[in-house]
Amino acid sequence: MKTVWALFDSGDGSYAKALSGGGEYKVIAIGKDKLNENKANFINLDLANNGILFNDNSLFDELDKLPKPDIILASPPCESWSNASAMMRGNTCWYSSSTEFKDGHIENSKFTIRTSKHIDTKNHTPFKVDFAKTVRNRINGELCAFNTMEIIKRYNPEHYIIENPMTSKIFDYYEDVCDWHNLRNKVRYNNYDESYPQKPTIFFSDMNLDLNSSIHPSPITIGVDKRKSSKRKQIRNYNIRSSIPSSLILEAVKKLYAV
Predict the structure, then answer these.
(1) Confidence class of residue 28 from pLDDT cuts 50, 70 and 90?
(2) Which of 18, 143, 198, 257 could make an SS bond with 249 (beta carbons 3.0 to 4.6 A apart)?
């Protein structure tokens, strides 16, 4: 039986739902349940913990108590990384910039932090932004992403997958900032379950998973479709929006060992 750590599987509990019950996997779900709806084998632990700065190693002390993972599956929160808050050259947390040096060398950065001036003027954003909330989202998002990488490196599972939207900057963060490179497996959810939206997604993994990323229209959308003529079903509940098709999870995990 393979031991699976399902990081951030605290909303819909997709990883636990897909892998529990068959006798092949022991799933330990870990994270914070935002809507307090998770009823699986769940460990309430703050994966954005930065206590190590103050000689507090409680995050790893708690994880050390668990059976060593064979597989780590993770869905770090994407709010600070995705295009959900898209604006000029990035989103409300980060943007792409370039610096030209005296020798003519131009250096590009995908992770310049937005200042309050960038998001408080009508010239830069057409929607109202709570700057304090944006800062907290950015810090939380980076801590979750960085700690996920550190957990994988520390516990060295046989395989791992990190899931995030295809437009998420988290993968650029891993590669450009952390110099941590893996394979970007593209997939669309409605290829595995027609009750899901397309939701273009990346499974960032140590393995080539060869998932189905073909494009097919879906009558379902995430969030609000502002087009008056639209009749697509809209998903607004946070836990449902974070759900992943069980058939997709099963296929991806099986392909980790299909060499």
Answers:
(1) very high
(2) 18
